[in-house]
Structures are given as C-alpha cells and as structure tokens.
Write a structure and sequence with these properties.
By secondary structure, the protein is mainly beta. It contains one helix and seven strands; from the N terminus they run E-E-E-E-E-H-E-E.
C-alpha cells in the first residue's frame, strides 16, 4: 500500500508518525496536532505486524479501523 507519512516532535527529541493512504487528507480527529510531511507515496506492506521505522504496530488494522495508522506511545522514534 502506498501511504503518505507525517511526523511530529514529541518530548525528549522523539517523534510520532502518522500514515494515511496516499493522497488522502489527515483525518479530522488527527488534525489537532502540527504534523509535518516526511514522505509521500511510500510503498509499505500493510499486512506486516509493524512498521518499526515509524513505531507503528498493526498498520493494516489501524488503517481499516481509523483510516490512518499512528505510532504507539511506547514506540516513539528518535530523530
């Protein structure tokens, strides 16, 4: 699946990532934070158990359930 990846700065120099299907807007419930575009049209396997580079677990389930996938709090990444 092709997705657009956004990121936002968190505490202690860490980052959260948000993935939405390519070309779609960030869903309204996730727009209350300043996301900056990191990558566009990234090809990733949504059936994978996780996308470790982005700290995202169960990306396929998240995309189906919410329309986006987001970093788990305990998996925020370093810059």
């Amino acid at each position: 699946m092709r997705v657009d990846i956004y990121r936002r700065a968190e505490a202690e120099g860490r980052f959260s990532h948000l993935a939405v299907p390519e070309g779609r807007a960030i869903p309204q419930e996730a727009t209350n934070t300043d996301w900056e575009s990191e990558r566009r049209g990234e090809e990733l396997d949504e059936t994978a158990a996780q996308w470790p580079e982005f700290g995202i677990v169960e990306p396929g389930r998240q995309l189906r359930d919410k329309g986006y996938a987001i970093t788990s709090l305990d998996r925020q990444t370093d810059d």
